[in-house]
Here is the input.
Amino acid sequence: MRIFSKVSQLTLIIGFGIIALLAVGYIVYQDQFGRFDIQHVRSDPNFTYSDALSCHVVYSTFHDVGEHFLKYYANTNLQLIGLTTDSPKMIVDGFEQPLRKIEEGTYTSTFYTEPVSKDVDDPSVEMIQVQKIDGTFVRSFVGLGQYFGPREVFYPDGFQLVIAQKGRCE
Amino acid sequence: MLFHKKPVSWLTAIIAIIAALELAVIIVIISYKPSDGFDSKMVKPIDNFAFRNEITCMIVHSTHQAGQPGMIMPWYENHTFTLTGLDTDTPSMIVNGKKWTDLQKTSVAEGHILLQKPSGWESDTISLMTNNGSFVRTITGIEAGDWRFHYAIAQKGRCK
Here is the structure.
């Protein structure tokens, strides 16, 4: 009986120890590798840059879907079309966003969004930069609290939002 | 006797220590939420902010931290920068006393201006509230010396 008791206690200790190690490991992993700053999107060596790309957000600083109504940024898929033309566009959830090419180099193409319409007071802007050799991209957004019809973006008046994302195109 | 001294076995002592550690770990896990991150951090604006031609801005929250392994970007680890020529359409950003970049005023609304780096291999955008001095900023680009690493930085801060 005494031997059984000791065996049970040892089993408990080992069990608790393993759980504790896993929990601590998870926290350390989140701290070291779960931080947006150093998260690295795996590149595609077979990627070919073309006029139209289908892209997927892999990492984002944006999580607060519940607190602010930001359906537009809850989308993790976007399409880029007309990349080799003078009038590229980004399509998110069916909404066509005109883009302005600010740089096209050997390795990257960089775009800013243009106002949807001259009639819409839109002080927000997005940036997207596609790595032409491996298809990875980074995207960011700064904006003010207001409603942008087609984007369905709404948050409290005066609230300044900033989002950074990383992803991959194919 | 009020305190009866009982011998404590080493097994009991170890179990008690592990149980305490477990409790601490569980509390940390439960209290950890993704929304505790950058996304939900707010900057308290300045009440008596006066928008001028030249203002100094301080970064309060940033997704980029100094000393990250493999990321050498000291120019984005400065906590302050100065914006000059804000009464023109082409202000400048000064970092460490030197001109860092020209900017373009791409949007002017009541209580707000939008400044963007006009061209280049990286983008730099600042959304500044002219009524209270708070700002948000994003920078995207490719790390010099390692074109494979694509960086995207988001920052929040205030100017005075």
